[in-house]
Amino acid sequence: MTKVGVADRVALGGAKASHVRMAPYIDKRFAIGKVDGALGLDFFQGYVVHASWSTGTFYLKPRGDAAATVTARMGRWGAAVPACAHPGCVTASLATTPGGVRLDIVRDPEAAHHALEVRIGVTPAPGKSAPALVVELPANVDKISGGVSEAYDGAKVMVLDVSPFTRPCVGDTGCVFQFASASASSGS
User: Fold this and answer.
1) Coil, strand, or helix at residue 16?
2) For FRET with 77, which of 35, 59, 85, 86 sits at 20 to 30 Å CA-CA?
3) How far from 53 is each of 7, 46, 130, 134, 177, CA to CA, in Å?
């Protein structure tokens, strides 16, 4: 493999994933003959992964409904993410306007001055495909509002996860990234 691509389906034993990004293996720490390859986080996204370092074994269990485990995922941060009225300390909504589809993300007051990275699950309207979103809210940004593609028209959004660790955005106004593949609120 010489360049990045997307595999429609990848299987490893009984584990399967769709739309997996593939990249050339460039890690020079190991002799190339001893490494068959590496799978990234997008392959394992649909699984809970447990590693047994003593046996060199990884155990995979399919994740359940992402919406059903929101509270547990968000609770893992403890005091780093405050308790708020809404999951992830934000409200997320889509609105169809004369100018197109608009995404609005509004921070809860309890999370003022906290940097947040929020994963938004998307359930597209029937017959459409719309990728999940990641919203970066720097500590000084309380609201992001802007246009998204027509693929989000009629979709439902739900906060699935939050992290106190944000990625950098161009400027200080926050930003929204699309996941590479379309996914529903189940997080698949």
Assistant:
1) strand
2) 59
3) 29, 21, 38, 32, 34
Kindly give the confidence (pLDDT) of every residue in the chain, 188 residues in length, as a single tens digit, with 9 standing for 90 and above: 677 888 888 898 889 988 888 777 777 776 666 666 677 778 888 888 899 999 989 899 988 777 677 777 888 888 899 999 999 999 999 999 999 999 999 999 999 999 999 999 999 999 999 999 999 999 999 999 999 999 999 999 999 999 999 999 998 899 999 876 544 443 33
C-alpha to C-alpha distances, 3 to 24, 127, 150, 182, nearest whole angstrom? 6, 32, 30, 22
In the structure encoding, which two tokens stand for residue 34, read together?
A: 């001893």
Structure-derived torsion over alpha carbons of residues 2, 17, 134, 152, reported in degrees to the nearest 10:
110
**Environment class of residue 11 by beta-carbon count within 10 Å: exposed (0-12), middle (13-18) or buried (19+)?**
exposed
- Across 82-100, b (16+ Cβ under 10 Å) vs e yields bebeebbbbbbebeeeeee
SS3 content of the chain, % helix, strand, coil (to 5): 15, 45, 40
Instruction: Name the residue with tokens 């926050």.
Output: 174
CA-derived radius of gyration, the chain: 19
Stated pTM of the model: 0.67
Q: Please, what is the Cα angle at 92 between 183 and 150, to 5 degrees?
A: 55
